[in-house]
Write a structure and sequence with these properties.
10-stranded mixed sheet; alpha+beta; single chain; 10 strands; 434 Repressor (Amino-terminal Domain); Umud Fragment, subunit A; about 40% helix; about 240 residues; about 25% strand; 8 helices
Length: about 240
């Protein structure tokens, strides 16, 4: 009997492969040309006929789709499970944000814009700020599409000079969440209800270094204690 986890991963890869092909309007031949993975191998993956696909093939497919490895094995049911676990208050908030994003999506199509939500912490902004409340604005991110495309998720606004000289008041940090942080990447991470903007330093264990005081580090002993909001793609300096 086939291992249940292997079967699950195989089916998730199949669904993700076909979903990405449909979204991009590609054929398996197109994916083969772009990834370098043989057509017959892709055909078997698309039909869940390979029990243990090679890591090399999966990495090539992820690069061709310009997505992370994790996202290839993410099931839509994972999101449904997370939503089911939320409290009624949290669900109302998610529903309100979803309705707002849908409305903005229609506006984007009409105006030919890409409107990116800007998260603005309303409490005191500092390294390890208490995540208590926020408000949102929107940035026309159309000028950044050619460079970052679908990687853009949201932005976070720096509301004072606590991170000077690295960041100034009014700076917008454009974030992506489709990747794991690499060495030296600036990340926005939630840890025990505190929000940190720090550099990721790989190691055993990995750690988060202060932007202005590199020796001040938080060790990531248990990754489950840390929630990644996003990795910084670039900084938009207001007025420039």
């Amino acid at each position: 009997m086939e291992n249940t986890n292997d079967e699950l991963l195989k089916n998730r890869l199949q669904n993700s492969l076909n979903r990405n092909l449909s979204q991009k309007g590609w054929t398996l031949k197109t994916l083969s040309d772009r990834s370098g993975v043989p057509y017959e191998t892709l055909k078997k993956l698309a039909n869940a006929k390979i029990d243990n696909p090679s890591l090399q093939s999966v990495v090539k497919v992820a690069h061709a789709f310009d997505c992370s490895l994790d996202s290839l094995f993410l099931s839509e049911s994972d999101l449904a499970y997370k939503l089911h676990s939320l409290s009624a208050r949290s669900l109302e908030f998610v529903e309100a944000i979803t309705d707002l994003e849908l409305a903005l999506m229609h506006r984007e199509k009409e105006m030919g814009q890409c409107l990116l939500p800007i998260v603005i912490p309303t409490g005191m902004m500092e390294d390890g700020m208490i995540y208590d409340s926020l408000c949102t604005e929107y940035l026309d991110a159309t000028p950044y599409l050619s460079q970052f495309g679908t990687h853009l998720m949201c932005a976070i606004k720096i509301t004072d000079n606590s991170f000077y000289p690295t960041y100034l008041e009014g700076d917008l940090l454009l974030l992506a969440r489709d990747r794991l942080p690499r060495y030296g990447t600036t990340c926005v991470i939630l840890h025990h209800r505190q929000l940190y903007i720090r550099k990721f330093i790989s190691g055993s264990p990995p750690k988060l270094a202060s932007l202005n005081h590199p020796d001040d580090c938080i060790l990531i002993g248990d990754p489950s204690d840390f929630t990644l909001l996003g990795c910084v793609l670039t900084v938009v300096r207001q007025g420039n």
